[in-house]
Amino acid sequence: MSSDHQPTQEPSDRENEFSFKAPGGISVQTDRTLLRANGQSERFLLVEVTAPTVAPDPSRARPPVNLAFVLDRSGSMSAAGKLDLAKVAVESALARLQAEDRFAVVVYDDRVDVVLEGSPASAEARRLAGERLARIDARGSTDLGTGWLTGCEQVAVGQSPDGVNRALLLTDGLANVGITDHDELVRHAAELRERGISTTTFGVGTDFDESLLQAMADAGGGHFTFIGSAVQIRDAIASEVGETLDVVARDVVVDITMPEAVRVEALTPFPTEQRGSRTAIRLGDLVSGQTIRIVLRLRFPLGGIGRDIGALVNVGDRDEVFRRSAPALAPVALVWQFDTSQANDTQRRDRHVDRAVAAIFAARAQQQAVALNRQGRFGEAAHAIDGVRRRIEGYAGSDPELQRLVAMLGTEAPSYAAAMPEMQRKQRHFMASAQARSRPQS
Amino acid sequence: MTQETHTLNDLARLAGVTPRTVRFYVSQGLLPPASRPGPGPNYGPAHLGRLRLIRRLQRQHLPLAEIRGRLETLTDDEIGQLLEQPQQPQSSALEYVREQLGRGDWTIGANASMPASGPSTRAQAKAAAPMAIAQMLATGPALARQAQAISPAAAPNPDHPPDRSTWERIELTRDVEIHVRRPLDRHTNRALEKVVEFAREALASE
Question: Which residues does residue A273 pair with via DSSP β-bridges, in sequence order?
Answer without folding.
Answer: A280
